[in-house]
Amino acid sequence: MAKKRASITDLAKQLNISVSTVSRALSGHSAISEATVKRVTALAKEVGYQPNSLASGLRKGRSNMLGVVVPHIDGNFFSQVVKGIEAAASKAGYHVLICQSNEDVAHERENLETLMNAQVEGILVSLSRTTHEFKHFEKVRKRDIPLVFFDRILDGYDVNAVVLDDRAGGYRATKHLLDQGYRRIAHFTGPQYLNIYKLRRQGYEDALREYGLPIEEELIISGSMDMAAGSAGIKQLLALPQPPDAVFSGSDFSAAGALQVLHERGLRVPEDMGLVGFSNELFSRLMVPMLTSIDQHCELMGRSATRLLLQIMQEQSQHAAPQHIVLQPDLFVRASSLRSAANP
Amino acid sequence: MAKKRASITDLAKQLNISVSTVSRALSGHSAISEATVKRVTALAKEVGYQPNSLASGLRKGRSNMLGVVVPHIDGNFFSQVVKGIEAAASKAGYHVLICQSNEDVAHERENLETLMNAQVEGILVSLSRTTHEFKHFEKVRKRDIPLVFFDRILDGYDVNAVVLDDRAGGYRATKHLLDQGYRRIAHFTGPQYLNIYKLRRQGYEDALREYGLPIEEELIISGSMDMAAGSAGIKQLLALPQPPDAVFSGSDFSAAGALQVLHERGLRVPEDMGLVGFSNELFSRLMVPMLTSIDQHCELMGRSATRLLLQIMQEQSQHAAPQHIVLQPDLFVRASSLRSAANP
DNA sequence: GCTTAGCGTGCAAACGTTTGCACCTAGCTA
DNA sequence: TAGCTAGGTGCAAACGTTTGCACGCTAAGC
Known about the structure:
The structure is a homodimer. In chain A, helix 2 (about 20-25) crosses helix 3, helix 8 runs parallel beside helix 9 and helix 10 (about 225-240) crosses helix 11.
């Protein structure tokens, strides 16, 4: 396939010196005379020498590679996290090997095998939606390969992780609506075994309690968090004898679905119905009215997770107590929830 | 770092056979007695043996890795393409090493070095916006590392590439507007040294010509193709003595920017102004009205590019005539351009 | 009974690096 | 002058595989 590339041995032959000298000259490590270093680097540049990282990795027992397992790489959230991971990793001289689990725990297991096989030095994981147990990660642990989770984690396992404070996100979104004068606030939530949805809901309930408001089950709609679920959810809410005056949706997509129905029925946002989403998707700025939403700092999460992983790798401290990094979400207030501005 | 993992040599010692026998037993290659194969695989499973792909890669002169250079991994288009690439590559037993050029040609050059250094067997590239010359790719070529470009390519270089028929996309978008009865159609375009924008514009002009309509420079707005550019563009158009009755935007983002201004001014879409975007971004379905747009089959592009690359690698035919694969875009007709449905 | 074939296995080299150790040559001290 | 230090270099082993070749053994053909 690829043409035979110049190796360190070739350089050595051409210069009539030994491979070890060449190696040391190039890595600048040992005491090699300046003259030799110059000769070597000059020739290296001339023939376009490039070190074979496979060989070096084999010898040094390192691969300079990190593995990443995500449910999928498309979509706003994960693609931005991966961007952050790649940026932080390449800054530290690491390559990134990316695998998709496609939300399937069996794939996830294979991905881990694949990555260990490729000799990655550390692994970053966001769990698939179908992962309920931890068994396949034990193998990684047994090999002492540092492991850091991000965003989606399993309850009850003490692991290194970088997560968003979803409870705070839910709380702030709901509190903002309350501050705007909304008093009957509904909530769209997702599967409760996922930490993210459970916590967002907790935040919602905490805020209501703080305002002395009751938590009404009929106002909490559980669904798949996509657009269709939002449309269906808002219809259900509007059919209530006492419909809500605002919705905090655990996802921007559901919020968008709800907005479409509201438009169809001639209801005004934010006057008749306040609306807050979650994730600060790109399109939240494109909706009419623009959607208030919670930003998750996706890229920062990727960078933080990578830095944590690199730190663990360096300290060889993976047996120390696992670290939890909790990022604080930001509320981006836009027109969809600004009743006070709409009716000053 | 990671605990010393069982190697083929360990297996050999435990079974009192030679490493070569173990190797062959595991790869099932040569004629090894069934009994031995069973013994070996059994022990391998027991100790959780995992082949060291670095060593194997070094010996075989293969790495089982493909390199990808993209301007960035976030955003709808590239994240989907990368999804397709990863899927196709992993199906063929390859890992994917991803680099971001951040739209910077210097980074792009470094990325290529990095990938060659990592011994990738082939490289997929979508050019950065600041890449005007081809010099840094010559080095890759000299090493006989198969190279496939996708989406963004440079004019005048004969290379393997998978691209979208952007001209057809522009043509179909414009023709659709014409069919809907719009007659004074404006166009948002981007930097003309990028094939994609140039071709979309060509398609636009071709359609107008076909309908015997003049191409008016004042209706063609060149910009950075983001939301702000769209807002600015539509304002400029509305200020004309004879404003257009429709806009074909080379990007959904600019279309969204334009839509916001139209809303503000109380102009109705599609009645007063038809609107068609390009890229079929996620949010095009979330806008009000939903935006007609051109779909680029991003994931298919990733898969096609990867398959082409793998084929070239297999055939060792990189010296054969470069192949061009042209994907046909699809028009997704939605409310923003349906004048006939709005006024039946 | 001797050759031949073929099956199963082992030896050893190779892939391109890195690195502990030993060696050599100067220049210095005692 | 012998002994020592230190700077510069080379030797060779090692990382974990793969693979061409050769070896030994058994069974079949003459």
